[in-house]
## 1
Amino acid sequence: MNFDPRFVHEVDVRKFDFSTFSGIDLVAGGPPCQPFSLGGLAKAHNDQRDMFPQAVRAIRELQPKAFIFENVKGLLRKSFSAYFNYILFRLTFPDFLEKEGETWQSHSERLQSLFYPQWNGLKYRVQFKLLNAADYGVPQFRERVFIIGLRSDVSGEWCWPEPTVKYSDRLTVWDVIKKLPDPKAKHRLRDHVFVDGARAYPGHTGSDIDKPSKTVKAGAHGVPGGENMICFADGSVRYMTVREAKLIQTFPPAYEISGPWGEALRQIGNAVPVKLAEIMGRQLFRTLQVSDNQLVHPLYRTGTDGAYMLFDPHESYSIECQGKQKRKSVSRRRCATREVETR
């Protein structure tokens, strides 16, 4: 309803032929997060909704200059660390394919044995970070993991955008709904309709109107939970209207969300806050605009916590090979906000 239908493909992504596209700069998306959600069944790779393998296929077949994926905080659970590490390795070396009948654990071991500089196939410099949308001008506490990848031949170093608002200046629910009419009153806003039945109980208390909203959720079993209610100063609660939820997710007022209330909230809850997406997109655009003549340093992941080392090709480093460490020299370089020893 919001895009040219010529560019919208309604099909199972597992059956989609990416070869119809060429010269792609960016692949962006959010592989279904329910397999990793703290509110879901948390089956990860055992969940048929896990579409990270299809995300890797898109990268492998389209070979974009960059990619950006978003997912829930639950992806960083300790119990998921081995599989998340596997995802990162697959995104780093997307054309290093698994063998027929091979387990993901076996494939992961073979991926980890690769040495980035010596791999001549398709490869990306991959980073991830947990961001809170409230720090970027979104009136909502929403922590999500972002994964960024730059193709190895692309100049420029990715830098995560700094928060745009101070903690004390975070936008509140009231900041975005104060100009809206009472949903029970007469008005002409089709997506601002009162929904009855809201009530508060432990674990289902709604979002304080004078604070950023709790995370707008899709709801695993129909109607979303208490995060999609507004709690007023007198203690009363009511469900957010579609328009209110849409504004809290920073969608433009004219953006159309179709379907009944529950379906509309599901769509909104599954989305990335538009303002944060724009900030990430502009930062990535600036990164891709860096001169092609700039020297590209290989980045090496130092662990599963997202830390990366920047290796200078004019210096020598110790290299750890299959459990035996051969030392030539050791150097320390600062990466992000920490100092780590290079290997």
Note: The chain has seven helices and 13 strands.
## 2
Amino acid sequence: MKFLVPLIVIAFAILLPVKVDAQSYGPENGTLVLAGGNVHDVAIFRRFIDLAGGPDAPIVVIPTAGGAPDYGPYWQGLLPLKNAGATNLALLHTYDRKVADSEAFVLPLRKARGVWFTGGRQWRLADAYLHTRVQTELNGLLSRGGVIGGSSAGATIQGSYLARGDTRTNTIMMGDHQEGMGFLPMSAVDQHLLQLNRQFDLIPVIEAHPHLLGIGLDENTAIVVHGGGFEVIGQSYVAIYDHNQMLDSGGRFYFLSPGDQYDLKTRQASRMYRVPERFERIKPDKWPDQ
């Protein structure tokens, strides 16, 4: 694939730096993998496993977003990681916040090198784990250089603003749950973007919260976030929603493809080519008031 070609150079967008109210930064030591759902590209799971330390690394899987009463060791949701080579998997699940805030429950997280959140409804993750010892240990995992990944709801929960967090329906973008885990600060993350025709849905979120960076992930696609930026991997596209940038046609989002890079500090995108070319059509310009 094009992002694996060794003799390519990065063509940085020639945008002027724009002033933003706040900036998103990835973990200084650890890494995030945010996938847009329906992941069947084994390379995404292998990248996560490699970041955790390889097939034998201890990885904790948190399936709580799925809403099942319980999850056993033979749950089929473990198969994608097993098929990608992971051999040291443990399940961690509860809906009880008191349990999630107990010393005994979080012990597997202290030994883990990676944590993967599976899909479902992101508000379930917030209800169970937000502001508990689970969240504290997850931040500790990142601080010691580990990796947190997730698909669909497991990607959205990693942002600071919880898009589609309403308990009634997932079509409400700003609902009764609006706080995510914040592993990627100042961000709102959506998923299943193009497959479910959701590419316009983050616009009102960014209009209401212009300091946020909106990131829309299509299915079978992910971003790998570390420090000041991220890389797109997988098979489809990622959309960027920045209240301080527009397309020259007036469009309020633009797409990144696999291999593209994004600088979270400057909010500028770059694309990799054999010959340097511009990342065209994006200009520094605030969205007009409604």
Note: Helices lie at 42-52, 79-83, 97-100, 103-111, 122-129, 133-143, 153-156, 203-208.
## 3
Amino acid sequence: MHEVEAPSRRTHGIHGRAEWGIILSGLLCAVIFAATIPLPRVDNHLVGSDGVRYYAITRSLVLDRDFDFTNDYSLLGEKALPTVTGLPANAQGIGTALLWIPFFLVAHVLSLLLNLVGLRVPLNGVSYVYEASVCLGTIVYATLGFLMTYRITVRILGSATPQTLWSILAMWWATPAIYYIIAEPSMSHGVTVFTMAAFLALWFPPSPTRTATRWSMLGLAAGLAALVRWQDGLVILVPLAELGWWCLRGRVSPARALAYLGLFLSVMVVVFLPQLFMWKTVYGSFLTIPQGGGFFSWASPHVLAALFSMRHGLITWHPIFLLGLLGLIPLWKVDRRVALLILFVFAGELYVNSAASHWWADDAFGGRRFVSLIPLLTVPTALLLARMKKQVAAAVLAALVLWNGLGLAQYRLGFVSMSQALTIREMTLGRLEVPVELVQRLLR
């Protein structure tokens, strides 16, 4: 009996330490973000860039209970042209704003309490109390996403190794995710780690014997992923393809397949309804491309540029993604179903992102539009690392994290352009010179 229980306790201990490591990583992100709050800001807001419009949705829904962002934009210093309905445009997805609502409400209660004890804190939804709360909400969701990613990676690979935790932390700190968790948490990217991890956790293992409850939960996860970032709605096609395949193979009857299909799509549509209502109110149509018809050029995607350009190319800026792609080779032998899922979603998101007119995503720390792929690519990364010597894996990941950190400092502190292509020197020697430049700035 003792020999049987010992491995169980050991495995439990490994999981416990790994999950605490992930939680501590999230707490470190929260501390770093909190430390930046007192820094001077040009606009006196913690939400910025596209995050202003995500935040405007949250504020408008909670305090005004409408989709008219006129007063929200006025308070936040944002401008937008009116649409055909006469309301100001807002092209951002509603999912992040909805997930922020609990944190916004906590901030509102806290602001009321502060006023009761004599502190004059704005109650109009525009203050550091409110804005910091939703930004911390992003960090919470991202941390939960990485926790789910760890658990599902262990389930898929069948065992937990130190490299499993290392892959989680590396995909956190050596990718654009870290920037959009600590420097720009008012954008949606950190939240996509949560939504895509939830989909992967509910999808695996794919099985023709999924219960109706499981199909409902899968529809919920797919709808939520699309609600936060529409491109992630590609995952909807995966369960549909599975049902078709199982039907052809005779593993699911056509009647049952149709029933599961109807259930999955019904739940997904219900979850996506808030976005449809917002589009209808703001743009006059339930279905639209809010950025305009010219936003995508489907016939001429810039695939190679999106991957390898000096202008925010995914692998050029974050070479750890190459490990994830190489890890698909051994993953194909371990679980072909998971490898196919990752290949499909990666190819689909690459096509959508590279077909955008501004495929480089304007001001962006590397390939920010690919952050939602992180929960998926963590699996093959962990498998590849597990087949390396521990010392080699640790050295490679440490180098990638350091390299990404130097790039983050270089980008955030304005040493390089935030929107234009970098030179080869800026991408190489320029990063290595960041510590020297920082010291020089401090001594001026």
Note: The radius of gyration is 23 Å.
